[in-house]
Each structure stands twice: as C-alpha cells, then as structure tokens.
Amino acid sequence: MSGDGPVEHLVRQAYGSLPQPAPTPALLTHGDWHLGQLVRRERWMLIDIDDLGVGDPVWDLARPAAWFAAGLLEPAVWERFLGAYLASGGPALGPGDPWERLDVPTRTLTVQLAAVAVFNAERDRRELDDVEHSLIEACARIVGLPKGLP
Amino acid sequence: MQCPKCRGNMRTYDRNGVHIEQCENCRGIFLDYGELETLTRMETQFHAAPPPAPGGPAWGAPHHGGHHHGHRRNSWVGMLFSS
C-alpha cells in the first residue's frame, strides 16, 4: 500500500489507533486460518501448518470476525460459526462476552484486510469494489471510536 | 381539584411514575411542576437509538450482511480462501 490518498491515510490512521493486544496465552494456534485451509477427503482436514505455533488462538477467529464486523458475513452465519466453535470446546474465548477477547484482534485483522484490499486494487489499477469498500468503512468506524477503548 | 378551564372535577392518575390530573369533563390534562420535563426525558429515551445488540463490537457494521449478495465481486471469494 504505497499510495498517499485519503483511503490509504484512513487505513494507516486505523492502524495507528490499534491498542496493544492483551498478553498472549500459550495455546496451539494455526496462524493462517481461512476456508482455503479446509480440505474434504472423507473427513474434513485442516492443512497448511507453516505458521502453526504456540500463541493466542483468538487470532485464528479474528479473520471471520472481521468479515462479520465489516458486514460481509450475516449475523446468523457468524453466530453459527462462533456457536459451533464454543460448543466444540474452542479454547480462544473465555466465558462471558466473546467480544471482550475478540475486539482488538478483530480490529487488527480488519485493518490488515483493508490494507491488502487497497494494495490489490492499486496493483491491478482498478477501483475498490463493494466488498473492499466495506472494509474501508469498518476502518473509518475504528478510527471514530473514542480513545481509551477497550 | 377543579379544572382551571371548565371547572370540571380533576381526577388524579399515575402513569409510569408521572403524576397527572385529568378533567373528567373536558379531558384536559394538568401536569405538576417538573412533570413535563419528566415526560420529555422519557420520550427522548424512547426514541434514543437502542444500545448495540450483544454479540458484536461497538464499531461493527450497523446493518450486517446481505448488502453484497447481488453484486459480490471476486475480492470476497479471494478473501475467504486466501491469507
């Protein structure tokens, strides 16, 4: 993302506003989780363990959470995903409001996805599409948050 | 108490903690001191935006989902399936 227009400025501003993440619990983390890492061969398998390591698994949830927060995933779909994760004993979120732990990583992933979107559009010399615009709008809402949150 | 307008008999009601007198004759309403402010405050609270629904961040999209179904572009599929 090399440009210096208002969109790039906004994404950088959102990046600058990100709070420090909470201390990391030492748990198994995939590190690059997305739907392309799921393969069906008689049963579902999770592949690509290049970034597997010990860390905070909430970051694995932050990408779909960012899609939800940008309005790209419908609430019912997101809640089904989150509910299935919690029901199967997923360790990333404690009891109580899952957004207490999700919020900062989700903001971070939103900014990252927006920066990648702007980079791709620049590279392909095209305008941002609707989906990419949703991410930029989410950055604007992050920038608009009162200071000191959470 | 007598109605100041038509001299009818005023009857007292309590509505949501607000003390009002209503004339049984002309149906006119008399408010005690401060009760108009109480009603105004209640009206403001009623019309205020509801607090954000639980299950989302404070900065989340106001209308989740459904906006891009008709004209989703390649970037969405790419985003789902790549880093």
CATH-level-2 architecture of one domain in chain B:
Roll
Question: Reading side by side through the largest sheet of chain A, how are the strands ordered?
Answer: 1-4
Main sheet overview of chain A: 2 strands, antiparallel
CATH fold-level topology of one domain in chain B: Ubiquitin-like (UB roll)
Q: Gap between N and C termini of chain A, in Å?
A: 28 Å
Biggest interface, chains and residues, is: A-B, 39 and 26 residues
Query: What low-confidence regions of chain A span 5 or more consecutive residues with pLDDT below 50?
Result: none
Count of distinct strands of chain A:
4
Question: What is the ordering of alpha helices and beta strands of chain A?
Answer: HEEEEHHHH
Helix content range of the residues of chain B, please?
25-40%
Task: Specify the overall morphology of chain B.
Answer: rod-shaped
Helix content of chain A: 40-55%
Shape label of chain A:
globular
What is the residue-averaged pLDDT of chain A? 91
Total DSSP E strands of chain B: 3
Helix-strand makeup class of chain B: alpha+beta
Give a verbal description of the structure.
The complex is a heterodimer of chains A (150) and B (83). With 150 residues, chain A is mainly alpha-helical. Helices cover 50% and strands 9% of the residues of chain A. In chain A, α2 (58-69) crosses α4 and α4 (99-123) crosses α5 (130-143). Chain A is globular. The two termini of chain A are 28 Å apart. The relative contact order of chain A is 0.19. Chain B is of the alpha+beta class. Chain B is built from 2 helices and 3 strands, in the order βββαα. Chain B has a 3-stranded antiparallel sheet. In chain B, β2 (18-23) and β3 (29-31) form a beta hairpin. The model of chain B has no long low-confidence stretch (mean pLDDT 78). Classes of the chains: A mainly alpha (150), B alpha+beta (83).
In short, what is this structure?
The complex is a heterodimer of chains A (150) and B (83). Chain A has 150 residues and is mainly α.
